[in-house]
């Protein structure tokens, strides 16, 4: 018998949206990640919506919602100034599809997961290939 995760991974996408949060990285690297996400999938973050530095000592987080139901091909490896950590949340199938889409441009490593009945939250570490 399939577990919930295996069954959802094999299903046709239902709920193909994934929330993506980047923090603790340079704004240029955040912009690079969002550029790759826009190239690979449909996202709510416009190309003109470039990450900005925020003054003060509070941490900065940049957020996007990505629809992974329609995947496009990323042209190849993309350079980051430093590794970037992002937290993604969505259905099992959608999160895995996002991870695979990012793997065309970056070395992607899963560094943590929290699994639920219908969704999971995954921390990914992206680095240049």
Would you write up a description of this structure?
25% of the residues lie in helices and 33% in strands. With 129 residues, the chain is α+β, with helices and mostly antiparallel strands. It contains 3 helices and 6 strands; from the N terminus they run αβαβββαββ. It is globular and about 40 Å long. A 6-stranded antiparallel β-sheet has the order 2-3-1-4-6-5, with helices on one face. Helix 1 packs across helix 3 (92-102). The protein has helices at 4-10, 27-40, 92-102, and strands spanning 17-23, 42-43, 61-67, 84-91, 107-115, 119-127.
Summarize the entry for a quick read:
With 129 residues, the protein is α+β, with helices and mostly antiparallel strands.
Query: What is the average per-residue confidence, as pLDDT, rounded to a whole number?
Result: 84
State the end-to-end CA separation: 37 Å
- Net shape: globular
The secondary-structure class comes to alpha+beta
Low-confidence residue ranges: 1-13
Number of strands: 6
Helical run tally: 3
- Characterize the main sheet: 6 strands, antiparallel
Share in β-strands: 25-35%
* Order of the strands making up the biggest sheet: 2-3-1-4-6-5
| Element-by-element helix/strand order | HEHEEEHEE
Radius of gyration (CA) equals: 15 Å
Give the helix level as a range of percent: 10-25%
């Amino acid at each position: 018998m399939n577990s919930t995760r295996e069954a959802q991974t094999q299903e046709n996408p239902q709920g193909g949206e994934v929330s993506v949060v980047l923090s603790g990285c340079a704004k240029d690297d955040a912009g690079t990640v969002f550029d790759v996400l826009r190239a690979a999938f449909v996202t709510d973050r416009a190309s003109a919506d470039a990450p900005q530095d925020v003054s003060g000592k509070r941490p900065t987080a940049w957020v996007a919602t990505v629809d992974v139901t329609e995947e496009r091909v990323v042209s190849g490896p993309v350079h980051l100034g430093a590794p970037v950590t992002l937290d993604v949340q969505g259905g099992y199938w959608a999160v895995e599809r996002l991870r695979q889409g990012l793997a065309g441009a970056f070395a992607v490593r899963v560094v943590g997961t929290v699994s639920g009945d219908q969704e999971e939250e995954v921390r990914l570490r992206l680095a240049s290939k």
